[in-house]
Amino acid sequence: MIEFRKVSKVYPGGTVGLNNIDLKIEPGEFVVIVGLSGAGKSTLLRSINRLHEITSGEIFISGKSITSAEGRQLRVMRRGIGMIFQSFNLVKRSTVLRNVLAGRVGYRSTFRTLLGLFPKHDMDLAFGALKRVNMLEKAYQRADQLSGGQQQRVSIARALAQEATIILADEPVASLDPLTTRQVMDDLQRINREMGITTVVNLHYIDLAREYATRIIGVRAGEIVFDGTAAEATDDVFSAIYGRPVSEAERLGGKTDEAI
Amino acid sequence: MKPSEGYPQKPSPSLKKGMTFALLIALVWLSAWETEVDINELIDGIPEMGKFIAKMFPPDWDYIGVVIKPMVETVQMAILGTTFGAIVAFPISFLAASNVTRMWLLRTPARLILNLTRTIPDLLFAALFAAVFGYGPLAGTLALSFFSFGILSKWAYEAIETIDNGPMEAMTAVGANKLQWIHFGVIPQVMAQFIGFAMYMFEINIRAAAILGIVGAGGIGIYLNRTLGMFRYDQTFIIILFTLVIVLAIDTVSSRIRGKLI
Question: Where does the chain cross the membrane (chain B) (predicted)?
Answer without folding.
Answer: 77-102, 123-147, 181-201, 208-224, 236-254
